[in-house]
Amino acid sequence: MSRPRPIACACAVALVTLVAGCGSSHHSQRPAVAAYIRKVDKIELALRAPLATVTRAGSQLAAAPRKATLLGNLAQASNRQQLAQALVRIRDLQARLRALPYPPPARHLRRLLLQLTAGEADLTHQLRLISTFLPRFGVVLRPLGPAALSLERVLSQRSAYGTAAVLALYQAKARALRSFQATTQRIVTAVSRLQPPRVSAPEYHAELASLRGMGAAAGRLATALMGGHPGNVSALLAAFDRAAAITHSPAAARAEIRAIKAYDASTRRLAGLSQAITAERAHLSSTLA
């Protein structure tokens, strides 16, 4: 899966002090709007530190290899802790902004600011999920490779002479299939406990579908072989192969691309909100001047 880009600190760009005076036909609103902007600026200053933490952690996650290492695991743990703390702080400041009294002319500005901080909080949450999900996902899937290799070795055995030897070979293959089925069931249980971020959801669901499909097909194959007279098992083998290929299918690839594009679109939306906030500040400045 391609790594999502770290989120940008759009708040730090958008929340700047309103310049120019207020007056004219809306002279009575001028002090209230100016006071509101000053309070907003204080919240912006408090947001800079947690948003800088988010950007730094996102850059580290994007640059880190997915393969688990001691240093990598320590970095992931540090990122998770920092992102959790940043999210708490961002949500607290978001609540302060929501509770801040505002004059009627600043209603639209307030709505844009709340949308921006909500988006920053959501993307911080998603980034925290990424830092938690990716390493754990890799760990719980690790037994699948050795289990598949072991099953392949047993199933590739074809030479057996005599009825007893053929029956023993079928039973050995059935046991290997049951063992593989049990491994997939354990992995499904572990994977089901994980909470994927939105950008990883297609990969997550494709992996679950593949594991469940391979486990079910392995169980049916084992039942067919256990009796010693399997007959035509080509349909069961085809079902197993289809399940194994789910994670590499064009449909799965398209779903992953859509998820990555949606993540990128959410970061672009924050940039758009930042620009809208700047424009609304300019509008307030001109209409109340």
Describe this structure in words.
There is one protein chain. By secondary structure, the protein is mostly helical.
Counting DSSP E segments of at least 2 residues, the number of strands comes to: 0
Through-space gap between termini: 52 Å
Task: Give a short account of the largest sheet.
Answer: none
What is the general shape? Answer: rod-shaped
List the helices and strands in order: HHHHHHHHH
Strand proportion, as a percent range, falls in under 5%
Mean pLDDT: 83
Query: What gyration radius follows from the Cα positions, in whole Å?
Result: 28 Å
Number of helices: 9
Structural class from helices and strands?
mainly alpha
Q: What percent of the residues sit in helical stretches (DSSP H or I)?
A: over 70%
Uncertain ranges: 1-25, 67-74
Structural key phrases:
289 residues; mainly alpha; 9 helices; disordered N terminus
Short characterization:
It contains 9 helices and no strands. The protein has 289 residues and is mostly helical. Helix 2 runs antiparallel to helix 3 (70-99) and helix 7 (201-226) packs antiparallel against helix 8 (234-244).
